[in-house]
């Protein structure tokens, strides 16, 4: 029988090839609205401010204070809903979700329960090395964030910072349509790309501005759904993959040992790479939701929605289709290059920012290979890349006009990335210009032929052995000889 421990290939497992078991994943993503003020008060939302300096009387839960809806936040929720191809509900309502917590001074969170502002929608994701998958969106609702308990300032006391109390969140709930850790992280990546393109959330997971609650269960393929566990507040794509991987294996082991899964809320510990139980999972009725008597239902005009729709920016899917049509690059490349707005902007500048259009496929290869590889290694974001699109474009121009070979270009790129200057400066300084002087190449070819008489005889009968001499000459020239010229001169000398 299959057991989680016996999965030989970790990579296949991450892609959902999990033998006798199927992993079922649904997500609730909290995305903080990019708004300067809170959902029901005028207090500021700036990140990293001194504790308790951005708290209005409403956010502090003082008696007699009335919440006032922030129209800008409503607009952002509608924009996001449209970006998720979802139904916008012209009627929605705010409800109180009641629970006690020290960083929730009101004693309840204002959320939307029965009537969310956005209904069903769907987005398409492309997991790494996988086929596109459509993930259903169940709903998007607006709600307030809670404050923050601070445990590490004192050994025996907990402090409360209410700056975050009342900040607007969009909770985006997916259907349980994902089947592997890779799909789950591709989903959040896509979601982030959409909200960033829309400008409705900055998608900064490190700051907690976007965080995922991941629901995981396992079942025999085609069987009944298993009991799910929810892993709270996972804040990076890698942690999402690891948390699901760990949690699914934990559940499988329990079931295979004859046990049952308890529905509970769990916490992912990225240091120990494990999930731990926080509390048994509560159900919606435990919160005693009821309509907030301080707030009128939201009634949107169709024209308000239409106006937002008419002014949506180009979204990742549309941009992907345009890249395929306009630049003729493969669909997979176009998908990678358009998930994030910054990446797409960089690519467009790279292809179109030169004196004449640059080769779109070569540009894509350089970005997805060398550039992303170097950024990854340096743990740097593209927005902080030491090599700008114009600088990389300058390098591609020198490959294009045969000043350097593609191989030498890798060396130049490494130096550019380390801050060595422009491609032209590095080529000049390091003497990397391709040797196109046929006299010089001829001398090197002759030298290679003279040094290997036996190979010369063989090559005359078998032209495939030409490669050996090309290699010798390239080596002798430090990679700088023009490969076409070397080939031609060799052929001439060998009479091929
Ligand atoms: Mn929520």
Quick description:
The chain has about 500 residues and is of the alpha+beta class.
Task: Write a structural description.
This protein has 496 residues and is of the alpha+beta class. The chain has three domains: 10-307, no CATH class; 314-429, no CATH class; 438-494, Orthogonal Bundle (Arc Repressor Mutant, subunit A). Helices cover 39% and strands 17% of the residues. The protein has 16 helices and 15 strands. The protein has helices at residues 10-14, 71-83, 181-198, 237-256, 302-310, 316-327, 331-338, 341-352, 360-377, 389-400, 406-417, 423-429, 438-451, 453-461, 466-476, 483-494; strands spanning 22-32, 91-92, 95-98, 108-111, 121-125, 133-144, 148-150, 159-161, 168-174, 210-219, 229-234, 264-269, 274-280, 290-291, 298-299. Strands 5-6-9-1-10-11-12-13 form an eight-stranded mixed β-sheet. Strands 4-3-14 form a three-stranded antiparallel β-sheet, with no helix packed on it. It is elongated. It starts with 9 loop residues before the first helix and ends with a helix. 38% of the residues are buried. The model is unreliable at 1-8 (pLDDT under 50). The chain binds manganese (II) ion (MN). Manganese (II) ion (MN) binds at residues 30, 143, 171.
What is the typical, i.e. mean, pLDDT? 91
Estimated radius of gyration: 29 Å
**Number of contiguous helices:** 16
Largest sheet: 8 strands, mixed
